[in-house]
Amino acid sequence: MPATDGQHYDVVIVGAGLSGLAAAAALADQGIEAPVLEARNRLGGRILSFSAGGYDFDLGPSWIWPGQPHVAGLLAASGIAVFPQYATGALLHQLADGRIERHPGFGPMGNALRIQGGPGALIQALSQRLAPEQVRLGHTVRTLEKTANGLCLGVATPDGTVQISAGAVALAIPPRLASKIAFTPALPSDITRFLEQTPTWMAGHAKFLAIYDSPFWREQGLSGDAISRKGPLAEIHDISPPEAGPYALFGFVGLDAAQRTALAETAGGPSALIDAAQQQLVELFGDHAGQAQALKLQDWSREPFTALESDAAPLGQHPAYGMPLHLADSWSHRLSFIATETSREHGGLIEGALERAGAFVATIP
Ligand SMILES: Cc1cc2nc3c(=O)[nH]c(=O)nc-3n(C[C@H](O)[C@H](O)[C@H](O)COP(=O)(O)OP(=O)(O)OC[C@H]3O[C@@H](n4cnc5c(N)ncnc54)[C@H](O)[C@@H]3O)c2cc1C
């Protein structure tokens, strides 16, 4: 019989990504200290950075956009500034045969903005509003049972399985991962179908970073934006800090997860993709691109608390997200799904995670 932690909580939040932490911070502001159970040994979920030369470079999201009220509200409340995505100069277009065309003017990122300190600054600001020990790292929720007076979570911890009792639970985890929790009684089939069929935004993708001592592309009148039909990087941008170096380019890998695995198997390990990506940067931006201070590849399809096998294929179009209203609250309003994919208007985005956290907290008396 698994141990219990001996307490009953009004609310428990599962997942310490942006949606879970935003919900916990808003509840803390109302005097409700909701435990946050997080499977990984870190905060942030899909928000992750790589530190080099004193700067945190994004391995997950990088951009926000004007017209995102929840992001704007959190930035203002946290005193965090934004700056425009660097897009001054020409855009490169690499054709499938490797030829490179230079196009003047606009980059593909339009009016994208970046957050001072990266999206990790949001995670830090939110976590500072929580009590010490409120987030329990290394706590993976495996089972969820509806009981006579609430819900009971079965949680795998480094010290064994514990049971945690709650009045209400917010699942701040991607719907597909939620479908892997064993629910007793089983959820209605339309909810299970929704959870299984909702792809996790960007879960099949990989992001490549190259960090440099100078912005040599800018010196050639290039913005750092590039689109390639040759690959392995399909889309490249400047991800440097706003004021000074170190400078950096990042690219979304154009190969899907199966192709990345096949390349690693046939070409001697994961470094083959890193080498090919750096070589492509040399083709596009010149020899200086071969002299990176640091290189980093983040393959999200290999992260079990983000991606399932069904997420391996990259999503072409942005899916139509949002939890159908009649499914949004289950088990007599005790169980809510609040990850970004459950947002109808901003599903997949940082804004969607914050919007859903706010909507959940508004339901708590
Ligand atoms: C490469 C990449 C680029 C992106 N670019 C952008 C961008 O430019 N702009 C933008 O707005 N958005 C972007 N996104 C999306 C953005 O990252 C997400 O919208 C946001 O981070 C989602 O937050 P979330 O809390 O809903 O989910 P998550 O960040 O996925 O958090 C879920 C948390 O739950 C935990 N968890 C999972 N299962 C369990 C379990 N059983 N028990 C306990 N804990 C569990 C996970 O470890 C994780 O910490 C990008 C994402 C990626 C990967």
From TrEMBL:
Pfam families linked: Amino_oxidase, NAD_binding_8
SUPFAM superfamilies for the chain: FAD-linked reductases, C-terminal domain (SSF54373), FAD/NAD(P)-binding domain (SSF51905)
Top-level taxonomic group: Bacteria
Domain Amine oxidase intervals: 107-356
GO molecular function: oxidoreductase activity
Cited PANTHER family: AMINE OXIDASE, AMINE OXIDASE [FLAVIN-CONTAINING] B
Similarity comment: Belongs to the flavin monoamine oxidase family.
Name of the featured protein: NAD(P)-binding protein
